[in-house]
Write a structure and sequence with these properties.
Blueprint (H helix, E strand, L loop, with lengths): L2 E8 L7 E10 L2 E9 L8 H7 L12 H12 L3 E4 L3 H12 L8 E4 H8 L10 H7 L9 H19 L3 H8 L19 E5 L6 H10 L3 E3 L8 E4 L14 H11 L5 E4 H11 L1
Parallel strand pairs: 1-4, 4-5, 6-7, 6-8, 8-9
Antiparallel strand pairs: 1-2, 2-3
Helix pairs in contact: 4-6
């Protein structure tokens, strides 16, 4: 898998005030090149930002401005898959281009935070900061160093690629599609009135599975609640389960069952067979 990873630090709350950029290049999933540079943002340094990354106005006084390194960056990542964690870095690059009246650099951006949220259930809605995810994956790094953050985001993505057995190119295709959290059921379907949730890795994409469930009448939801009536369980990857035998959704459904809230728990195979028999 060939791709780049990029991270920036800024001098203040203005995203265009880039004071450090780090870029890592990976080929066949291996780090082959890395580049990092301080950048003179030609702007003030907020003490809060300094407290985070430790970069000062004195440190960058002889560093190049963004426009001086623009061509180098653009030639490396334009049109190439480029990993970043959260929208901050992507927005900062765009804002710096606009600040210097340069053409906006256009790599194929891939947000590792979105990949994290679609890979590990405990990070679906919260806690998916780079530090938290790196700690979970036992990746040691110096946070708020642009190069180290870039390399770490790349390694997180490589973990997700290995777990899900898909390439970074496939991840790009998937995250370009919105995640289906809620989908209303066909009122003519035989399962109309049921609220269904999926967990685990399915043989189908979540989007395809949700469409099938909705066509059967199910309201498709993203989490197990008191309103859930069906849980469809795919393959449980032990790496994702944090020491448990079942996913958090599966365990919650069983707990609600014990409290008198009936939830049917089906394997994906049984769910598909039920749908096929109805069709």
């Amino acid at each position: 898998m060939d791709f780049f990873a990029l991270d920036v630090e800024t001098a203040n709350a203005d995203y265009s005030s880039i004071c450090q950029i780090g870029i890592a290049e990976f080929q066949n999933g291996q780090l082959i090149d890395k580049w990092v540079s301080l950048v003179n943002p030609e702007s003030y340094f907020d003490p809060y930002n300094i407290s985070i990354h430790g970069i000062t106005a004195e440190a960058v006084k002889d560093a190049p401005t963004f426009d001086a390194i623009y061509d180098f960056i653009a030639k490396r990542i334009t049109g190439k898959i480029t990993v970043h964690h959260m929208p901050f870095d992507r927005v900062a690059i765009t804002r710096a281009c606009l600040e210097y009246k340069l053409d906006i650099i256009q790599p194929v951006w891939v947000d590792s935070a979105i990949i994290v949220r679609r890979t590990w259930e405990q990070f679906t809605h919260k806690g998916y900061s780079l530090v938290n995810v790196a700690n979970f994956l036992k990746i040691d790094f110096k946070h708020h160093d642009a190069l180290e953050d870039a390399i770490t985001a790349a390694r997180v993505v490589l973990h997700a690629c290995e777990i899900n057995q898909i390439s970074i190119e496939e991840w790009h295709k998937r995250i370009s599609q919105p995640t289906i959290i809620h989908l209303e059921g066909n009122p003519e379907g035989s399962l109309y009135g049921e609220t269904l949730v999926f967990t685990g890795t399915l043989s189908l994409t979540r989007k395809e599975a949700a469409k099938i469930a909705a066509s059967m009448g199910c309201h498709v939801d993203g989490s197990v609640t008191k309103n859930t009536t069906i849980l469809v369980v795919g393959i449980q990857d032990a790496f994702k389960l944090a020491g448990y035998e079942k996913s958090a959704k599966h365990r919650k459904a069983e707990d609600l069952n014990q409290k008198g809230i009936p939830i049917k728990i089906l394997s994906e195979k049984d769910f598909i067979e039920m749908c096929n028999s109805e069709k």
